[in-house]
Amino acid sequence: MEQQLRTMLDIGGWFEIVINWLTANFDGLFDAIRELVNAVLVSFQGILTFPHPYIMVGLFAALAFWRAGIGIGIFTLLGMFLIHIMGFWEVTMDTLALVITSVVIALVIGVPVGILAAKSDLAERIVRPVLDFMQTLPAFVYLIPAVLFFQLGAVPGVIATLIFSLPPAVRLTSLGIRQVPKEIREAATSFGSTPRQMLFKAELPVALPTIMAGVNQTIMLALSMVVIAGMIGAGGLGNEVLKGITQLKIGLGFESGISIVILAIFLDRVTQSLANPKGRKS
Amino acid sequence: MSILEVRNLYKVFGPSPSRAFTLLEKGASKEEILKKTGNTVGINNASFSVEKQETFVIMGLSGSGKSTVIRCLNRLIEPTRGQVLIDGEDIMKMSKAQLLETRRKKLSMVFQQFALLPHRTVLGNAEYGLELSGVPKQERQQKAMQALEQVGLKGYEQQYPSELSGGMQQRVGLARALANGPEILLMDEAFSALDPLIRTQMQDELLELQATLQKTIIFITHDLDEALKIGDRIAIMKDGEVVQIGTPEQILTKPADEYVRAFVQNVDRTKVITVSAIMRKAPTVALYKEGPKAAIRKMENERMSIIYALDNERKLQGIVTIDDAIRLVRERKDDLTPVVANNIFTTTPDTAIGNLLGTALETSQPIAVLDENGRLAGIVDRASILGELSKTMDEEELPVPLADQLEEESTPNQKED
Known about the structure:
Chain A is built from 13 helices and no strands. Chain A is mostly helical. Chain A has one domain (28-275): Orthogonal Bundle (MetI-like fold). By secondary structure, chain B is an alpha/beta fold. Helices cover 39% and strands 21% of the residues of chain B. Chain B has helices spanning 17-25, 30-37, 66-73, 96-105, 122-126, 128-132, 137-150, 166-179, 196-213, 224-230, 248-253, 258-264, 269-272, 275-278, 292-302, 322-330, 357-362, 382-389, 402-410; strands at residues 4-13, 40-50, 55-59, 81-86, 89-90, 107-110, 184-188, 216-221, 233-238, 241-246, 284-286, 306-310, 316-321, 346-347, 367-370, 376-380. In chain B, the strands form 4 sheets. Chain B has a 6-stranded mixed beta sheet with strand order 6-7-8-3-9-10, with helices on both faces. A 4-stranded antiparallel beta sheet of chain B has the order 2-1-4-5, with helices on both faces. In chain B, strand 9 and strand 10 (241-246) form a beta hairpin. In chain B, helix 1 packs across helix 2, helix 7 (137-150) crosses helix 8 (166-179) and helix 15 packs antiparallel against helix 16. Chain B is globular, with a radius of gyration of 28 Å.
């Protein structure tokens, strides 16, 4: 009986059939997506690696100093310099380009979906389980179809990262807009807002700190995922970590791990400061 | 014509308003309707009209429907039935574009929790309404600055709301409403979130501002003292119905029902009842036309020992006592002028009677009431002030005659509880 039911349902089998059908029939679409994502990725890589590392270290440190204060500024200066000295500059920039590409795409998709979910209860009800699914399904599971659709390399890495890091962007956008005080909405309406003015002049700006907290979460999740994406040849620091594990090079693993931590702290502090712009402490 | 008129306004919240209406027509109460149909009656047949440049206060406790009423005036809440006429135009029948135009040009609202945009500066908030209407930047900033100046916020333009105190934030809210140049200001519990001291100050400033701006103000409050202080007229609401509409004095002196009576019982009447409510006519004599004999006759008729002497323009010159008048008759003199004394106090009709108490205790003469042209409008004496104040005394607290007190003490065991 159980055996029969198992053969009848065969979820794994169905999943394979769907994936095979998609690869067979939407090859052109996936190719187009791959080209597009690759173009974005390559241009970010180009921008980040074009100047001399010292110039970039200085720029990062200045950005950290401006947004997060002197402490993080000094930390960034020393940390980034250390990465360069250890010889990880190129791969770190590759990783950063992967993160930026994934996050940009995640926000382009996530923020509008979040707005939709905030405006419509139906949309929220549909979106929520999809997000739960995306967040809890082990990352390795969608690495495989990502490779099938987009072949090995950086693009499936970006796609897998995107899937993993998109949910907080949607959730916190929706939350931020739903949390806009009723009186502010009423004020916007009473002064004659059109629906468009309501969104762009009241709801989004008021929700911005919450949305930026979502951006911060998205970036941090993306960073954790691009490391795993090293397994499918996404390159960057993930690749170095993987080498360290598979070839038992403890030193290499540790050094690349340190680089990831430095990058993570820099990204976190800088984007956290975006969530608390000056002059609007509640 | 009234600038704003509300006719038979109803708002029913809930799944089946029409069922609620059937019950309402049968005279069912709010609770019955909630129990039977699950609908909440927010406003039940409210009608009132507001005159141009009037400050109209809608007062009621929480749940009375006052906040719903004010939101129906600009359709933040859609009324279920009824009409809201602004300048004779029914806001219920307006198209989307007309409604937007009305909200932008004619009505501005001030909110209890200020509802300022935290990401904008004070100036940015003040120009918000004009920005929505597409007014060019320079013009709207100029108007916003003007409005900020009116509310006393000059120099704070570049601050953020979070850097200001509650009172200051509400000034920004007021400036934002004024910058649009609306005919009607809707103020929803505008001062309720402020500290008592700041609240009083804001009330005073609103009154001052209103004296120069002459807007039509519809002010919602749950605070009767505030209503009495600000309102030219007050509508009292209870359970979604308008129970009484009247001037502060009418509400205090002639409460429509027990609810209003209970409400106004604890009001400090000395601050609300004005001289005009208790003054009476005074005997007068025309200084340059009438002589001592006429004065004496008039005093005898009124049973008064003094008479008020007026000049040809009926302006008050002073008083003549009956003794002086009799002396003049004895001395066979016809001119009253030498005996006119000016050792009396004067006041105006709209002074609150509390302000007279000290003077009334000092002087034995009635206080003369002069209108804005210095003409005698009437007089107020000590007895009429005390009489008015004693109207609301709690009977159980009144002094007891000593005889009754002694009698009660001699029979201590006859109480039944």
